[in-house]
Amino acid sequence: MTTKTREKVLEIRDLSISFSTTAGTVNAIRGVDMDLYRGETLAIVGESGSGKSVTAKATMGILAKNGNVESGSILYTYQHEGAPKTVQILEMKKRDMRRHINGKRIAMIFQDPMTSLDPTMPIGKQIMEGMIWHYKTTKKEAYEKAVELLTEVGIDEPEKRMKQYPHQLSGGMRQRVVIAIALACDPELLICDEPTTALDVTIQAKILELIQKIQQERGISVIYITHDLGVVAKVADYVNVMYAGRIVEKGTIDEIFLDPRHPYTWGLLSAMPDLDMEDDRLYTIPGSPPNLLHPVQGDAFSPRNVYALNIDDRREPPMFQISESHYAATWLLDEHAPKVALPPELQVRIDRMKKEGVR
Amino acid sequence: MHKYILKRIFLSVFTLLAITLVLFTLLQFMPGSPFNDEKLTDDQRTVLNAKYGLDQPVYVQFGKYVSNMVQGDFGVSYNISKNTPISQLIQTRLPVSIRIGGMAVGLGAIVGLIFGVIAALNHNTFWDTLCTAVSVLGVSVPSYVFALALSYTFGFRLSWLPMLYSSKAEFASSVMPSIALGMFTMASIARFTRTEMLEVLGSDYMLLAESKGISGAPLILRHALRNAMIPIITVLAPLIVDLMTGSLVVEKIFSIPGVGSLLVTAIQSNDYNVVISLSFIYSAMYIGIMLVVDLLYGLIDPRIRITKEGGNA
C-alpha cells in the first residue's frame, strides 16, 4: 500500500484439496492462489462450505485425516536468524510442522471459544504450555509472560484468572484467552477462523478491536476468515472472495466494496443488512452452493447467477485482471460479454459508501 | 471437601442399614430354614431356633443383629461351618478374592486403556480392527472359557503356571484366574476408551492444542486421555466391585478359596448370617468405591469439582 517494498509471507499456488467421505470424494478446494504480505490483513470471505477454513487448516497443517492435497504449494517465509527462510508447508513432516511452525510462527484463533479450550486444564497452564514446549521457558518466566498476555488481551485480575478453568469464564473472556494462547509464542502470522461468529454482537466489536490493536503493535500479518462483510470492512486490507472452492474475486478493500465485478460479490454486498436501506426485505442470493461431490461444469456460480451467460455453463471463467491488485473470475469481464449494470439497489449503496467511506 | 466426605460417609451408614433391612426381609421369604437336616426332629428344631434367636419376631432379630454388628460381631455360621464366627470364616477367603479381583481390574483397566488408545489413534487401520476384534471377543466369550483355555495351555501343556490355587505360590497361582476374570473388563474398557478417545480427538480443543504445536505423548496424555478418562471411570467403578467379590466359576476351575463359592453355598443352605455379612461387605465396598470415584471425578474434571462450601461447584 505504501512505497516501501512489501515482504511476502505466504504464497499459496494452485492449491486443491479433496476429502474422502463415505459418499465419495468432495473437492473442497479447486485451485486456490493466495498471497499475503508482512503486516497486512487478508480477509477470506464466502459462504459455509466455500473452502475458507480448509485453506486455513492446510496452512496450519491441521487438515482432517481424510483430507488429501491434490496439487499445489504453500510457501511460508519467516525470519530465521536474521535472514528470510522459505519453507514448503505441504512438504513438511507433521512432526517438523508442529516443532517449527505451529504456534511459533503461525497461530490460529478458532471460531467457538466455548469448545476450543481444554476443559480440564487451567487457562494459565494452557497459555504457558506452548512457551514451555517450544522455547523450554522456565515455569516462572512462562507464568510472568502469561500474566502479561492476559493483561494485554484485556482480562482483569490476571493472576486470579490463571488458576481458573474455561468453564468459569464467559464466552468473550474465553476468546480473549484463546487469543492470548495464540500470541504466547510471538507468531508472525495469525489466522482467525471466524473469531467473532460465536460471540454476542457487543463482544464482537471488542474482540475485533483487540486483534487490530495487537496487529498494529506487533506488526504481524493476519488472515481473517469470515462470512461477515461488516467484519471485513472493519479490519481487512485485502479481500479474497471464495465460492465453491475457488477464489472468484480478489482485490483491495476499496476495490471489492466500491467496484465489485463478480456477480457473487454483488450478491454478498447486497445481502449485507443496512439500516439506511429503503427496502424492508433483506436481499438473499437465490439457491444454494453446488455439491462438490460432483465435478463442476463451467462456472460453479452460474445456476444461481441471474447475469449468467451461455458460456458460464460450459467453461469455467479465467481470472480477469482489472487493476494491479484487482482480479475477478467472471465471463462478464470478457471483451465479447454484454455490458451489465450493477443491480440498482447495490449501486445506491455503493454511491453512499463512496461518500461515507467503506469502514 | 472434608465436609462433603463426612456427609457422604454419614449417608452411607443409612444406606447400609437399609440394605441390611432389605436383606433380612428377603431372607424371611426364602423357603426352608438353616436346619433342614432330615434327622432333626421338630423339637430339636425348636430348640435350635430358640438357641440362635430365630424364633423371635423379625424386627427383634434385626435390632439385635445390628447392635451386634456395630460391636463388630457378625454372628456365627449355622451350618456351613458350625458355630464358627463369620469374621473368622471370611478372614481367610476375602483377601484371596480381593487380591485376584484387584489384579484382574488392574490388568483389565491398563491393557484396556492401552488397546483403546491405540485403536483410536490408528482409527480405521489394521490396528484399530485388531483391537476391536480382541475386545469383541473379550466381551462375548464367558470368563470360564478363558479360564479353561488358559489352564489347559499354560497350566497343563506348558506347565508354566500352577493349574490350581495354592497359598504357597500366591502370585503365580493368581495370574491365570486374574487374566480370565479381567478379560471382560479389558474388553469393555478398550471399547469404551476407543469411542471416547475418538470423540475427544475430534474436538476443537485438540485442534487448538495441535495448532499450538503440541504433539506426541504430551498431546495424548495431557489433553486427550485426561478428557476421555471422565466417562471411562464411570464404567470402570462397578466392574471393580464385581471382580473383587469373586466369581464362582473361575473359583471352582482354579479351586480358589474365595468368597464367591462361599456366598453361593450359604444361600443354598440358608446360612443367614453368612449371606447377610457377605452382602453387607459387598455393599460397603460398593459404596466406598463409588465415593472414591466421585472424588476422582473432581480431581480429573474441574467442572464438577467440589467447592469448600460442601456443594457442587
Write the layout of secondary structure elements.
The complex is a heterodimer of chains A (359) and B (313).
Chain A (H helix, E strand, L loop, with lengths): L7 E14 L2 E14 L3 E5 L6 H9 L6 E14 L2 E6 L5 H8 L4 E4 L13 H13 L3 H14 L5 H5 L8 H13 L5 E5 L7 H18 L2 E6 L2 H7 L2 E6 L2 E7 H6 L4 H8 L49 E2 L5 E2 L15 H13 L3
Parallel strand pairs in A: 3-8, 3-9, 6-7, 7-8
Antiparallel strand pairs in A: 1-2, 1-4, 4-5, 9-10, 10-12, 11-12
Chain B lengths: L1 H28 L12 H10 L6 H13 L15 H36 L4 H15 L2 H15 L12 H32 L2 H8 L4 H29 L3 H6 L5 H10 L3 H29 L13
CATH architecture of the domain at 91-258 in chain B: Orthogonal Bundle
Amount of helix of chain A? 25-40%
Overall average pLDDT of chain A:
90
Largest interface: A-B, 33 and 23 residues
Low-confidence spans of chain A: none
- Count of helical stretches of chain B: 12
Domain module count of chain A: 2
**Fraction of residues in β-strands of chain B:** under 5%
CATH architect. name of the largest domain in chain A: 3-Layer(aba) Sandwich
Shape of chain A: globular
For the biggest β-sheet of chain A, the strand order reads: 6-7-8-3-9-10-12-11
> Order of SSEs of chain A, N→C?
EEEHEEHEHHHHEHEHEEHHEEH
Helix/strand/pairing category of chain A: alpha/beta
Distance between the termini of chain B: 11 Å
Return the CATH class of the domain at 91-258 in chain B: Mainly Alpha
Order of helices and strands of chain B: HHHHHHHHHHHH
Secondary-structure-based class of chain B equals: mainly alpha
What is Rg of chain A?
Answer: 21 Å
Unreliable spans of chain B are 308-313
Number of helices of chain A: 11
Text of the CATH class of the largest domain in chain A: Alpha Beta
Provide a descriptive summary of the structure in words.
Chain A has 359 residues and is of the alpha/beta class. Chain A has 2 domains: 8-236, 3-Layer(aba) Sandwich (Rossmann fold), CATH 3.40.50; 242-356, Rossmann fold (3-Layer(aba) Sandwich), CATH 3.40.50.300. Helix content of chain A is 32%, strand content 24%. An 8-stranded mixed β-sheet of chain A has the order 6-7-8-3-9-10-12-11, with helices on both faces. Chain A is globular, with a radius of gyration of 21 Å. The longest helix of chain A is centred in the middle third of the chain and has 18 residues, at 201-218. Chain A has helices spanning 52-60, 94-101, 123-135, 139-152, 158-162, 171-183, 201-218, 229-235, 253-258, 263-270, 344-356, and strands at residues 8-21, 24-37, 41-45, 67-80, 83-88, 106-109, 189-193, 221-226, 238-243, 246-252, 320-321, 327-328. Chain B is mainly α and 313 residues long. Chain B has a domain at 91-258: MetI-like fold (Orthogonal Bundle), CATH 1.10.3720. Chain B is 74% helix and 0% strand. Chain B contains 12 helices and no strands. The longest helix of chain B has 36 residues, at 86-121. Chain B starts with a helix and ends in a 13-residue tail after the last helix. Mean pLDDT of chain B is 86; it is low at 308-313. The chains are: A alpha/beta (359), B mainly alpha (313). Chain A binds chain B through residues 60, 62, 65, 94-95, 98-99, 101-104, 107-108, 110, 112, 115-122, 129-130, 133-134, 165, 167, 178, 181, 184-185, and chain B through 123, 203-205, 207-216, 218, 222-223, 226-227, 300-303.
